[in-house]
Design a protein that fits this description.
Structural class: mainly alpha
Distance between the termini: 106 Å
Number of helices: 24
Helix content: over 70%
Length: 405
């Protein structure tokens, strides 16, 4: 038989549950406020003691209310915080299983995609997903199997709150660790985020990619193009993270594609130069250069990346790309250099450290370089009208190059 004390505790529990069942929106909001205030940080045994070994009876009411009302945002943030008290409690595995059995993960992911839901409620949803993911590999796989990576990544790109975006980054970082079955899916999701319009999302994605890359071990072919395009951003914090990721990627199988891409960014296409030149001739206004600003930013960032020291061995360093550029652009004669007589495109991969120092000390004459590249547009177009002495020099130089060829 139960003691009088136990009977009184059960009576209080039944009275509390009946109060919840009969309460309206306002009354339930007050009940949740009191529950959050008095039970934050309690362990599972303490919660059971609070509810006379019937805490699960209240949890099931919370989850039922969540599933019914989450689309209307009725007390949604408070409901999620209350459920979080159960799921994050020490020794709360039983509560976690009860929540998942009623489709808790799918509900949380759906909340992230609803436009009418407030940002604070979505942040609480992300925090619950963090708790679930941190509970073990099985739970991380459950989130991924529920198309969670796509939902989470899309929310990161669309969120307007930097604080919430940082919580999403924590979640994605958790999903990429200890999740071998789906870690590639998370990795691809991070790459897909790079072209998004949110600078904060780009920055956080690049940071997480730097963490994920050593775990994945291999690279996805699309990462080179996506990272190089990010270099055109006007947000220096994003550009910094992109350059840091590039330094890491040099040690992987995309090294050659990455170096070629960086070098290509240093030399704008004839089409782009022609457009810009026409604008300068018609009106020197700085505002007219705005459409070409991303191209200039990419050039500057590529030059910065090439000039920075890298972690991989010197033979594969980005600094060698600088030598490729100088060789391809026909440097002026400097100290004698007995470089290998081979294709200029491969030279930077074959020279030794002494030859590298000699080439790095050389300077580039842009006019001669343009001639060596066989530019299809005339010098008049690029440089405007010149006096006869200047034009004679250019003509003489072109003839000299042709005779040597």
């Amino acid at each position: 038989m139960t003691s009088i004390k136990e009977q009184a505790a059960i009576s209080r529990l039944l009275s509390f549950l009946q109060e919840w069942d009969n309460a309206g929106k306002v009354a339930r909001s007050h009940i949740l406020d009191k529950f959050i205030e008095t039970n934050q940080g309690k362990t599972a045994p303490e919660l059971e003691q609070e509810f006379s070994q019937g805490a699960s009876l209240f949890l099931v009411r919370l989850t039922t209310s969540l599933r019914i009302t989450y689309m209307t945002d009725s007390c949604l943030e408070k409901l999620l915080r209350s459920i979080g008290i159960f799921l994050s409690a020490v020794s709360s595995n039983r509560y976690l299983i009860e929540f998942l059995e009623v489709g808790g993960v799918l509900t949380l992911l759906e909340i992230l995609g609803l436009e009418k839901i407030k940002e604070e409620a979505k942040k609480e949803s992300v925090k619950l997903l963090q708790v679930i993911a941190n509970s073990g590999r099985t739970y991380k796989e459950l989130i991924c199997e529920s198309y969670g990576v796509r939902s989470i990544a899309e929310f990161l790109a669309k969120s307007k709150s930097e604080e919430t975006q940082e919580e999403v980054q924590v979640l994605l970082d958790s999903l990429v660790h200890g999740n071998p079955k789906y870690q590639n899916q998370v990795y691809k999701g991070l790459i897909a985020l790079l072209p998004c319009e949110s600078p904060k999302a780009q920055q956080l994605s690049l940071q997480t990619l730097r963490t994920a890359q050593p775990i994945i071990g291999t690279t996805h072919p699309s990462i080179v193009d996506c990272v190089l395009k990010v270099l055109g951003t006007m947000h220096l914090e994003v550009q910094y993270e992109a350059i840091e990721l590039i330094k890491d990627l040099v040690g992987y199988d995309v090294r050659q594609a990455l170096l070629k891409g960086l070098v290509a960014l240093l030399i704008p296409s004839v089409k782009e130069i022609s457009k810009l030149q026409a604008k300068i001739l018609s009106d020197p206004s700085v505002l007219q250069l705005t459409p070409s600003l991303p191209m200039f930013l990419q050039q500057a960032a590529a030059a910065k990346a090439i000039g920075l020291p890298t972690r991989p061995p010197p033979a594969t360093s980005l600094c060698q790309a600088q030598l490729q550029v100088q060789t391809a652009l026909a440097p002026q004669p400097g100290p004698p250099c007995s470089c290998p007589q081979s294709n200029a495109e491969d030279l930077y991969m074959k020279i030794d450290s002494i030859q590298a120092d000699i080439l790095a000390a050389n300077t580039v004459n842009v006019t001669k370089a343009l001639c060596l590249h066989g530019s299809s547009y005339s010098m008049n177009t690029l440089y405007g009208s010149r006096d006869s002495a200047q034009m004679a020099y250019l003509t003489h130089f072109e003839e000299d190059v042709e005779s040597k060829e």
